[in-house]
Design goal:
Blueprint: H1 11-25, H2 37-50, H3 52-58, H4 60-75, H5 81-101, H6 110-123, H7 130-152, H8 155-166, H9 170-202, H10 205-249, H11 258-313, H12 321-327, H13 341-356
Helix pairs in contact: 1-2, 2-5, 2-6, 4-5, 5-6, 5-7, 9-11, 10-11
Keywords: Coiled coil, Membrane, Transmembrane, Transmembrane helix
């Protein structure tokens, strides 16, 4: 709520109502007045003293109309019957305005006490003089209409009316938004299904990538093994090609050279041994690649398999044991079938011993 100027909370007003309350409580008035006026005025002054901010906020209508006159009446040092009647009617109007804006359902609440005080006066209105009763009739019947009109003419309510006029087609806008929302829900559903497929395809993506990196390294090793075997094969047939070329171009020299033949034979056997070693390594790498490809394939369908198994069999702690034993098992290299270098040297030594034996 917007800030309002102090009227009831002003120090001069509080001093004035304190002085008036003291004077009325002395019961030394020099004139006759209605017995209901003084208790009602004292009750109203007590409300003004204990709840000044509530009256400042809610009673702006009467503050503007009769505020100055009311302050003049309560601060007048000479109090007569007409002055008491004016103070009574002014207090009644201020309390009626607060009761119009505020509801109180519990004892002790200022609005509840104000309602009770007003009702007491209304029940005994027959004893009030006609000139004062007319003011009460205005406060009870006509002032609420004036208060409502004042509220409706406020700038804030004008904004509400302007908003209602400008956005009279809001229902149509809401309907369009609902249509777009339904279409968006369908799109989101389609995207959800697509993402579910991607989840199944790329689940265990980290593990799949690790296997793929290992497989890439193994493939480079297999390519290198093929190149080495090709080089060894060329080196193995090179002596025979050289001998054929030499025989073709030197027909007169047909003598058999035993030492050269043995050198060629030993050279080819040595190359053959290394060729066999490289070939066994190549076969081992190919076996490992097959196992890695199997693991990558398993990583692509295991999520769907696990979901399906859970739905069919229920929760089972040993559900993925076979999968884990397959994926996380060591890669078999079959090294027991690959001959060592020293084994080859021993075989060559035995061959030379047999040749040299008489």
């Amino acid at each position: 709520m917007e800030d309002v100027a102090d009227f009831f909370a002003a120090q001069k007003f509080q001093i004035a109502i304190a002085n008036l309350a003291r004077r009325l409580s002395d019961d030394t008035l020099s004139f006759e007045t209605n017995k209901q006026f003084i208790p009602f005025i004292l009750s109203a002054l007590a409300f003004f003293k204990t709840n000044p901010h509530d009256f400042d906020v809610t009673c702006q209508f009467n503050i503007k109309l009769i505020g100055d006159r009311f302050y003049s009446d309560i601060s007048d040092s000479r109090i007569d019957e007409v002055g008491i009647e004016n103070i009574f009617t002014s207090c009644y109007r201020f309390l009626s305005e607060l009761a119009f804006y505020k509801d109180g359902n519990f004892p002790g609440n200022v609005a509840y006490e104000v309602h009770r005080t007003l009702e007491k006066i209304q029940y005994e209105a027959s004893e009030i003089p006609a000139r004062v009763k007319n003011q009460l009739v205005y406060a009870d019947n006509f002032m609420p209409v004036a208060l409502a009109k004042s509220y409706l003419n406020k700038a804030d309510f004008g904004l509400i009316k302007s908003f209602d006029e400008k956005h009279s087609g809001l229902g149509k806008v809401v309907e369009e938004l609902n249509t777009k929302l339904e279409a968006s829900k369908k799109e989101v559903g389609a995207l959800h299904d697509a993402l579910k497929n991607y989840e199944n395809a790329f689940n265990f993506v980290g593990l799949h990538k690790g296997f793929n990196d290992i497989a890439r390294s193994k493939r480079r090793s297999s390519y290198l093994s093929i190149c080495i075997m090709a080089v060894l094969a060329c080196l193995m047939i090179l002596p025979f090609l050289w001998k054929i070329w030499h025989v073709v171009n030197n027909e007169s020299s047909s003598a058999f050279n035993t030492e050269l033949f043995m050198a060629f034979l030993g050279y080819d056997l040595l190359l053959l041994y290394f060729f066999r070693v490289v070939f066994q390594g190549y076969k081992s790498v190919k076996g490992q690649l097959v196992q890695l490809d199997l693991r990558k394939a398993v990583c692509q369908f295991i999520q769907s398999y696990a979901d399906y198994a859970v739905k069919i069999k229920g929760s089972n702690p040993a559900l993925l044991e076979k999968f884990e034993s397959l994926v996380f098992s060591g890669i078999v290299a079959n090294e027991e079938n690959i001959p060592s270098t020293f084994d080859g040297v021993e075989q060559l030594a035995k061959l030379f011993e047999k040749i040299r034996a008489p």
